[in-house]
Amino acid sequence: MHPPGADTVLVRHGDLNTKSNTVKRYMLDFLLENLEAVLADRSVAGNVEGNWNRPLIHTTEDAVEAAAAATADVFGVVSTSPAIVVEADLETICDALAETAHASYDGGSFAVDATRADKRLPFTSEDVARQGGTAIWEAVEDEFDPEVDLEDPDLTFGVEVRDEAAYVYLDRLEGPGGLPLRSQAPMVALVSGGIDSPVAAYEMMRRGSPVIPVYVALGDYGGPDHEARAIETVRSLSRYAPNVDLSVYRVPGGETVSLLAETMEEGRMLSLRRFIYRIAEQIAEEHDASGIVTGEAIGQKSSQTAQNVAVTSRATRLPIHRPLLTRDKQEIVAQAREIGTYRDSTINAGCNRIAPDRAETNARLDRLLEVEPDDLFERAEAAAASAERIEL
Ligand SMILES: Nc1ncnc2c1ncn2[C@@H]1O[C@H](COP(=O)(O)OP(=O)(O)OP(=O)(O)O)[C@@H](O)[C@H]1O
Questions:
Q1: How far is the CA of 194 from the centre of ligand 1 (A)?
Q2: Can you tell me which residues bind ATP (predicted)?
Q3: Which DSSP string corresponds to 224-244?
């Protein structure tokens, strides 16, 4: 919902404000470009104005809701509001609130949520809340029996007063927060198409790192559906990163996977993980990427016990980032649904067969090295070299 005539989106960012001015300038430039990119990608008309604390999207009333929704998907954005812009003057603000109430209030309780950024103004946020509340009341009392409820109102009238103008709005769409995409170095994201890895890739992008998605094809142990769901989850992620190339590296791993399944029993999942990490490292080197991202969570699977993670991590010199490390599965599933990757992740791909009946949970590197193929890493390097890149 928006006030009548709203043609502007107020964009709020969070972590950017904890930065020095130099860093904030650097990050803000990325944020503004990313706001423009998401509007263009979703064919929503709007011009971005790069204000220091509150970037604005200038659009039309017809497009204002779509512009607020699109920009609320941009990393670094805490929230957006479709708003009308009025002079930062108490009387004008009260008139705007009265007009908004006429158009939008439909009975029930209301509140005014007012903030004032410029302390030099001759009125306080309490003045705005009190006098604005009265203006709303008077605007609707002939038709309704209004009630003020500051705790849990049915309708909240938002007012943000800044030095250049005041903004009046009704809705606040929550954004992902974090930092603008591309403000951190790129990372390779290992995407298996399961529920977890797309969420992990999303989380890393949320902190500013563009990801280079890598999928290792498992041959007879994976199949076309397994591959398709990995690609589809990345496609779903691409709506959050329209100006980043998310083409997926598809690495042929089938032969090595078969070898591991035929020659190893308990530790095969760990050697497979080491094979996959080494592939990621190779691709990371080509892109000067600074780390590897996985969807692992401590204890979620036997291959992810604390001891096993310690052993598998030794396959690469790059840091392995596990944004979901301490999360419960239910939380991850809820986030996958929210960001739109869950459905693709749950296509039945029949890919569990590689797991042995009795899995290792307490690995030791020396014991694993005795039983895994000596040329595991050479195989990984060769596989990475013959990867193909799949455009979305
Ligand atoms: N075939 C693969 N290609 C790319 N990365 C993979 C592959 N298999 C596993 N990984 C990476 O290793 C992590 C742990 O592997 P695991 O076997 O638990 O994955 P999964 O359950 O198939 O998928 P997810 O962890 O995405 O739910 C994954 O989160 C992913 O980052």
A1: 6
A2: 190-191, 273, 295, 304
A3: HHHHHHHHHHHHHHHTT-TTS
The pLDDT score that the predictor gives to residue 362 is 85
Asked whether residue 273 is marked as a ligand-binding residue, the answer is yes
> 188 C-alpha to center of ligand 1: Å?
13
Q: Of ligand 1's atoms, which has the minimum distance to the CA of residue 269? A: 17
Over residues 152-171, the pLDDT tens digits come to 999 999 999 998 899 999 99
Closest CA to 167 of 155, 158, 176, 178: 158
- Is pTM beyond 0.90? Reply is yes
Ligand 1, atom 6: closest residue by C-alpha: 192
- Known binding residue 191? Answer is yes
Prediction ipTM score:
0.98
Burial class (CB in 10 A: 0-12, 13-18, 19+), 388: exposed
pLDDT (tens digit, 9 = 90+) per residue, 188-227?
999 998 999 999 999 999 999 999 999 999 998 887 788 9
Phi, psi of 390 (to 5 degrees): -100, 120
239: exposed, middle or buried (Cβ count in 10 Å: 0-12, 13-18, 19+): middle
Residue 349 has what pLDDT? 64
Residue to mutate, 190, 192, 277, ligand 1, most ligand atoms under 8 Å from C-beta? 192
Ligand 1 atom with minimal separation from the 198 CA? 26
Are the C-beta atoms of residues 70 and 84 closer than 8 Å to each other?
A: no
Q: Give the Å distance between the CA of 30 and the centre of ligand 1.
A: 30
Distance (Å) from CA 191 to ligand 1 centroid: 6
Q: What is the mean pLDDT of the chain?
A: 94
DSSP-assigned beta bridge partners for residue 168:
84, 159
Phi/psi for 41 (5° steps) reads -60, -35
pLDDT of residue 222: 83
Amino acid at 157: F
- Enumerate residues lining ligand 1, CB below 6 A: 190-192, 194-197, 214-216, 218, 276, 294-296, 301
Amino acid letter, residue 95? D
Location of structure tokens 């990621």: 280
CA 34 to ligand 1 centroid distance, Å:
29
Between CA 307 and CA 326 the distance in angstroms is: 15
